[in-house]
Amino acid sequence: MDTTHNYKFDELTKAHDAIKLVDIDSYINGLLQNKDAERDRIILTVDELLGKLQNRIQLLSVYFKQRYVLPNAVAPAPLEPTFYTKQEVALRYRVSMRTITNWIVAGLETTLIGGVIRISDTALQEFVKINKRRKYGWRSISRTRID
Fold first, then answer.
1. Helix (H, G, I), strand (E, B), or coil: what is residue 118?
2. What is the DSSP string of 43-97?
3. Which strands sit side by side in the sheet containing 111-113, from one edge to the other?
4. What is the domain extent for residue 56?
């Protein structure tokens, strides 16, 4: 590994010890004492910088977990089949409720549970695999009955 990268990473890992709230407070107060400075602009600028730092740290954390932690974890198999409502499927695939209704008319298997149409995860996966490239055109379903 490059020594420059080692140095940057060492700095980053020691930052939580090096940055004290007292230091940040005195830095901000020093900025605010400048007669030409606008208080609101300085506070917004510091808040924006802290937000960027927070976003960077979260990005690094997610990258690390996806790359090194999660591949080693074994996900437990679901004990029971998972069922979704039409609304949940629409949100999951970022389509409209009308599209889900068209999918049901086109053959997506549903189950009526408690008076609500439910779609099993396995039926959804099979339907998506079979119809992955199919384009759904407009058609009236007003005369089609959905159970």
1. strand
2. HHHHHHHHHHHHHHHHHHHHHHIIIIIGGGSPPPPPSS--EEEHHHHHHHHT--H
3. 83-85, 116-120, 111-113
4. 3-72
Per-residue pLDDT tens digits for 98-123: 988 988 998 899 998 888 889 999 99
Please give the Cα distance from 119 to 121 (Å, whole number): 7
The confidence score (pLDDT) of residue 143 equals 47
- Please state the separation of Cα 1 from the chain's center in Å: 32
Say whether both 97 and 38 belong to one domain: no
Give the CATH number, domain containing residue 118: 1.10.10
Using only C-alpha atoms, what is the Rg of the chain? 27
Of 72, 88, 110, the last residue of a domain is 72
What is the pTM (predicted TM-score) of this model?
Answer: 0.39
Number of domains making up the chain: 2
